[in-house]
Amino acid sequence: MRILVPLAIFLATLNTAHADDWPAPQVREVFSTSRDHFVRVTPGTSWGDTMGFAGAKKGAYATTEFFRRDGDGNYRPTARATLLNPVAPVEFFVSNDGRLVTLDNWHNTGYGTAVAVYAPDGKVTKAYTLADIFTADEIEAFAHSVSSIHWHKGPAYINKDEKTFYLMIKAGDDLILDLETGRVAYCRTRGASYLCRDGNDATKWGANSTMAPMR
Predict the structure, then answer these.
(1) Which residues does 18 contact at the CB level (< 8 Å), separation at least 6?
(2) How far apart are alpha carbons 4 and 147 in whole angstroms?
(3) What sign has the CA pseudo-torsion 146, 132, 173, 190?
(4) Is the CB of residue 94 less than 8 Å from the CB of residue 103?
């Protein structure tokens, strides 16, 4: 028993650490499907503004540079902006007209700004926390780890129409974001019905044609 108890504690510690083991954020670039645009994101240093790092140093937030391909095939910078992410987004996506979608916070999935869309000039079109989209009960039902809320379990991409962003929450549940307006719709498939709502009011579900025409 003197051996087994410390071993069990050690293994439990390993499992907890593994569940929230993140590499250091890096400078990353993502291109649009057409490759006419790309965005470069440089990580910030404001760990003190993230959940679970109370007392850590606060500093600059993540920054981004927007680039567009000109007629000669060269990429020219068109805009620079500071993102809403203290360190970095977990994922980001670029549309063919140069709009940027960021998803989650580095080491803090589900906390802070969960999803945001930026115009080609770098200005925020719309940003959402989980509480803007889901009810408290829905958020509580998501899997939680030491530093993250694991609120989506499927693919994320800009749709072929290049006007909307799609994110699978789980099988049958989707999040759809209009890239121009920033409007969001949380949609569910129930039987033969596809119902959506545009906020965290669980009583306001409507037909897809009126609540999420962008899909």
Answers:
(1) none
(2) 28
(3) positive
(4) no
Give CA angle at 199 (144, 164), nearest 5°: 90
Backbone phi and psi for residue 98, each to the nearest 5 degrees, phi listed first? 90, 15
CB 74: neighbour CB atoms within 10 A? Answer: 9
CB hemisphere CA count around 48 (13 angstroms) = 6
Strands 193-197 and 206-207, sheet pairing: antiparallel
Tokens (6 digits) for 40: 């470069």
Show the tokens assigned to 185: 């719709």
Structural contact between residues 174 and 168, judged by C-beta atoms closer than 8 angstroms: yes
In whole angstroms, give the CA distance from residue 113 to residue 104.
Answer: 6
Q: Show the low-confidence residues of the chain (pLDDT under 70).
A: 1-20, 208-215
Locate the domains of the chain by residue range. 23-211
CA distance 112 to 128: 8
Please give the Cα distance from 125 to 121 (Å, whole number). 10
What's the pLDDT tens digit per position in 59-80?
A: 999 999 999 999 999 999 999 9
What would the two tokens of residue 198 be?
Answer: 């545009």
CB 156 within 8 A of CB 89: no
Give the position of tokens 């679970």: 52
